[in-house]
């Protein structure tokens, strides 16, 4: 099955299911159990499957599919360009995709790759958050159910082309192209020239692919949690609190003890430009309350060492308290960025981890917003 080694299941699934009822966004006091059922959306008008799914890991020209549970694939992009991971869940009658990639073109490659393992209809896309690298492939999946947090819909339906993350990414590509074109004139030999030309071609292709993007927000939204029942599979989509954005959701497969966490839990610190560093550790505490043995992050490899969550929490707590203290001393964003010392966390991640002015600026913004 998978090369991701998972520890033996120690907790009975029934116990786990009962336990997780208390985890993340618990029902309000007095809320009837039926409320959960009302939030349940079942696939309708499915076409029967025609192909027999191929079990196990496989690779296509563009993707690696790692089968982490029966019909559940951790999908990574193998083309050397920036993109996010996806999860593909092949159910009895349909397919659910978590995160749709960075552009319509890469989204189509994902669909083509899925077609190599199944021709069951793709009925549902779930977006972990609104960031372009996870959600700008939505449009190619056609008029289907797109599930996401209300915050995700709000950010994608507002002025998505003005989102700072997207704007700075596309500006960075344009600047990169200018730099490469300048470097081409100064290339010293044929080999160097050919390499730069290849990078220019690749970057031009990515810029052209951006032009096709029509941000397509979720059409099924929620604030706390939604349960999707597909055949005998239960797929829980849970808001554990604000973290990497104001609307990160975890896609939790309780029977398999797997959680796809998008960018709220990576193998180290995440991008903080839209983050809520002050609330993040608590959000991760709610993630820890789920019965999980494997985390599939939005970038990087799968995580079985769940102690990493503690390390990420410690990093954000330390970062936040240092920034709060330095700001209270009257330091500005630049001075604070220079003074923050996160070297103690390198040991936990096996590599140096730090911060930057963008992240610190975001934390200043949060503190300003609070009037602190
Ligand atoms: Zn993100």
Describe the protein's architecture and organization:
The structure is a single chain. The strands form two sheets. An eight-stranded mixed β-sheet has the order 2-3-4-5-6-7-8-9. It has a six-stranded mixed β-sheet with strand order 1-10-11-12-13-14. With 372 residues, it is of the alpha/beta class. Helix 4 (132-135) links the parallel strand 7 and strand 8 (145-149). The chain has twelve helices and 14 strands. 37% of the residues lie in helices and 17% in strands. The structure holds zinc ion (ZN). Zinc ion (ZN) binds at residues 129, 131, 244, 263, 271. Residues 129, 131, 244, 263, 271 line the site of zinc ion.
Individual helix count: 12
**Relative strand content:** 15-25%
In whole angstroms, the N-to-C terminal distance is: 51 Å
Indicate the CATH topology of the largest domain.
Metallo-beta-lactamase, Chain A
**Overall mean confidence score, pLDDT:** 88
Alpha carbon gyration radius: 21 Å
Number of separate structural domains: 2
Kindly report the spatial arrangement of strands forming the biggest sheet.
2-3-4-5-6-7-8-9
Class from secondary-structure proportions: alpha/beta
> What is the helix content?
25-40%
Biggest pleated sheet:
8 strands, mixed
CATH class of the largest domain: Alpha Beta
List the helices and strands in order: HHEEEEEEHEHEHHHEEEEEHEHHHH
